[in-house]
Design goal:
InterPro entries: Cu-only_SOD (IPR053257), SOD-like_Cu/Zn_dom_sf (IPR036423). GO terms for molecular function: metal ion binding. The protein is 9% helix and 26% strand. With 232 residues, the chain is mainly beta. It has two domains: 109 residues, Superoxide dismutase, copper/zinc binding domain (Immunoglobulin-like, Sandwich); 78 residues, Alpha-Beta Plaits, CATH 3.30.70. A five-stranded antiparallel β-sheet has the order 2-7-6-3-4. Strands 9, 10, 11 and 12 form a four-stranded antiparallel β-sheet that branches. The protein is elongated, with a radius of gyration of 18 Å.
């Protein structure tokens, strides 16, 4: 991956996966917020590439759907520890994979999933619905509050999402590089945020809790920062 850091993920594994020795690895568009894998969406394909293309390979990664990891690297072993270097996944920018999900499949059946979480400083901003959400305007306002370049601010993959029964929106974002926790908190109610200023009438998200019964997959992401993405 390029341009950021990830900490790791929380995951859900089905009983079927305990009987498998390998599975296909994908990155899907959404997080598994419910602690299960029903809401992960389709395979992450920001450039509208042809799924399952015969020209997709490790030597021709630009011919692949971004989220089709096994199409480039082969099946993921569930019994042996392996290292894969994936060079064309972005951690920052409009096509970030952060706040999306890693999915294991056996054929068309999902046997495991995990959320990709940021290791860089991150926050959520909850505000009343706006008619049209502008990613550029939001990032520009956050950059103005934090007195930094707009390029350091990435809106996370599942944003904006509905909040407070649909009356409000929540936008998650992360910062490349260091910023103090208190300075980041100042974004919420700063007047420079304008229509994106956090409102007391909206429910503030406290983050997604770990669900009972979830456990880590037998392989995990190593923390990376401005280095190639490593899968274990």
């Amino acid at each position: 991956m390029k341009g950021g850091c990830i900490r790791g993920y929380r995951s859900t594994v089905s009983s079927l996966s305990l009987q498998l020795t390998e599975a296909s690895l994908f990155i899907n568009s959404m997080r598994s917020n419910d602690g299960r894998c029903g809401g992960v969406g389709g395979t992450f394909n920001p450039f509208n590439m042809t799924p399952g293309s015969s020209t997709c390979s490790l030597e021709s990664p630009l011919s692949c759907v971004v989220g089709e990891i096994s199409a480039r690297h082969g099946a993921c072993s569930l019994t042996d520890r392996r290292v894969h270097t994936v060079s064309n996944l972005d951690l920052s920018g409009d096509f970030t994979v952060v706040h999306r999900s890693v999915v294991l499949k056996n054929g068309d059946s999902i046997v495991g999933c995990a959320d990709i979480l940021p290791d860089s400083p991150s926050a959520e901003q909850t505000f009343p619905n706006v008619a049209e959400f502008s990613r550029y305007d939001f990032r520009k306002r956050v950059a103005s509050v934090l007195q930094m370049e707009m390029g350091r601010i990435t809106i996370l993959g599942d944003s904006p999402s509905p909040a407070a029964g649909g009356r409000c929106q929540t936008v998650g974002y992360m910062i490349s590089g260091h910023v103090s926790t208190e300075f980041l908190k100042s974004v919420k109610t700063n007047e420079k945020m304008g229509k994106f200023k956090e409102s007391h009438s909206c429910t503030r998200s406290a983050g997604v809790p770990f669900k009972p019964g979830t456990r880590l997959l037998c392989w995990m992401f190593a923390s990376v920062c401005l280095l190639p993405f490593i899968l274990h």
